[in-house]
Write a structure and sequence with these properties.
With about 500 residues, the protein is mostly helical. About 75% of the residues lie in helices and about 0% in strands. Helix 13 packs antiparallel against helix 14.
Length: about 500
């Protein structure tokens, strides 16, 4: 007599992966972004607990992005070999376990070690969740789903400082790490029950030289970028790490381009649309993330506002993004990503020039209006660049493509505060190093505006016809060549290993 399926098995079959995958990916994205933004709020309390200066806790902050960057290159091979579900849930479980250990740390050494473990897990989480998401939806569907995925990406960094302050003030600094568990554990359980399992495939032998070279290049470079503003760009440690990172990066490119099964499929950059969108992401994120870093400093240091006032003033940026992405999805198919991204960056440039006119007496509602407009402008940036970057990528190359996208975004995000801090330092007299004068902030906004304007000019040259063709195709399963119409008179670009 055949066995009757269990209730869980029947429910798992009923739930569509088009619902399950976004739920898991939203949870993962929210947890990882909040954790990256909330830790800095707890540093003064941690310093008091361990009887250290806040500056002595620099390792707690820096070790996370360094380890994250070093782990990213292995993520694509892991997804291809073991499948997206297994890799994502294992990385999420590791992230939650290291969060628990961070909260229970009894000394600085333990805390740094556990933060390193968090960074290692996060380095796999981001590309694995993105590959799973974009492997589930076609190019046409990706536009729609990205409009919803942008919500946690905007709400999380805005809510993190407020949440962190409440936890530190009313509980303890340990809860900025424990808070990951109430969201993460249900996500692990939900994903284990309802995510469709895939056995992966044989991606070829693991490229150990590629991992060692790329991890060393990204780790050294990220350390130099993060520490440059603090230690000074001419300090031996920063110069050595940047030079070493550059040398290892060149060595990585030489080695990977000559291997039959490279860990990093750098040949993907031979596709112009993939290359251009990643370059726009790398440079364009500097003025975007730089503004989100600079504005709270301006409000608290130049205007003397409180942290709460600062958070409430920058928060309208999230509403601007959420409004624009709804329009962007409809326009993408009609006009393509080139005009949307280019016009969005022109808007970023204009708002930055407006912010550069702010003085110590500028009202908070004026800054809030500027931040809302800023959010509306950058809402034209995130979704089109992400979707377009994968429009001409073969389905089998999705894990590699999303991994390379993650490397680019992490690098651009790290460059942003480094660029802002450098401009502030250059514009600050040595006698007033602890408090940059108002013109230093204004010059920083102008510098970011110049970068945004240059990126806008480049964005208008982006070839987006393949992206528009992919977006017009009928929805199906998967992305890339699975639902793409070959262009007339154009050879199909095979950019695998």
């Amino acid at each position: 007599m055949p066995r009757r399926p269990s209730v869980l098995s029947a429910l798992s079959t009923r739930l569509s992966q088009r619902l399950v995958v976004p739920v898991v990916c939203v949870s993962v994205t929210f947890i990882a972004i909040v954790d990256g933004a909330i830790t800095t709020v707890a540093l003064p309390s941690i310093a008091r607990q361990f009887r250290l200066t806040t500056a002595a806790l620099d390792g707690v902050v820096v070790v996370y992005p360094v380890c994250l960057a070093m782990t990213i290159p292995a993520s694509a091979w892991l997804v291809e070999r073991f499948g997206g579900k297994r890799v994502l849930l294992t990385a999420l479980a590791g992230f939650l376990g290291s969060s628990l250990l961070c909260g229970a740390a009894t000394g600085l050494g333990q805390l740094v070690a556990y933060r390193a473990a968090q960074g290692v897990s996060a380095g796999v989480l981001f590309p694995a969740s993105t590959a799973l998401l974009f492997g589930t939806f076609s190019s046409a569907e990706q536009i729609r789903i990205s409009r919803y995925m942008i919500i946690p990406q905007q709400i999380a960094p805005a809510a993190a400082p407020v949440l962190g302050g409440l936890l530190v003030d009313h509980l303890s600094w340990r809860w900025v790490f424990y808070v990951n568990l109430p969201v993460g554990l249900p996500a692990v359980l939900f994903g284990a029950l309802f995510l469709a399992g895939d056995r992966g495939r044989r991606p070829g032998p693991f490229d150990r030289p590629g991992l060692l070279l790329s991890a060393g290049a990204l780790g050294s470079g990220m350390f130099g970028i993060c520490e440059g503003p603090n230690r000074g760009w001419s300090s031996p440690a920063v110069v050595s790490s940047l030079v070493l990172g550059a040398v290892l990066l060149v060595a990585t490119a030489v080695v990977e381009l000559h291997r039959s099964h490279p860990l990093l499929r750098l040949r993907l950059f031979s596709d112009r649309l993939f290359r251009d969108t990643n370059l726009i992401n790398l440079v364009g994120l500097v003025p975007i993330m730089g503004t989100l870093y600079l504005t709270p400093l301006f409000l608290q240091q130049a205007q003397g506002r409180t942290a709460l006032e600062s958070g409430l003033t920058t928060f309208p940026e999230a509403f601007g993004v959420l409004l624009t992405v709804q329009v962007t999805g409809a326009l993408y198919v009609r006009v393509g990503p080139r005009l949307i991204v280019g016009c969005g960056l022109v808007g970023v440039t204009a708002v930055l020039l407006l912010l550069a006119t702010c003085t110590a007496g500028t009202g908070l509602w004026t800054v809030r209006a500027y931040m809302f407009l800023f959010g509306a402008a950058i809402g034209c940036f995130f979704v089109p660049t992400t979707v377009a970057s994968l429009a001409t990528v073969d389905r089998t190359d999705l894990p590699q493509a999303t991994m390379l996208n993650t490397v680019v975004r992490q690098t651009g995000g790290a460059l942003a505060p480094a660029a802002v801090t450098t401009v502030l330092v250059l514009g600050t007299p040595q006698a007033a190093a602890a408090s940059p004068p108002l013109p230093a902030y204004q010059h920083a906004y102008v510098a970011l505006a110049a970068i945004a304007a240059a990126t806008a000019v480049f964005a208008f040259t982006m070839p987006d016809r393949p992206a528009r063709i992919a977006a017009r195709n009928r929805p199906g399963t998967g992305t890339g060549t699975a639902g793409r119409v070959p262009l007339p008179g154009r050879r199909r670009n095979r950019v695998g290993s």
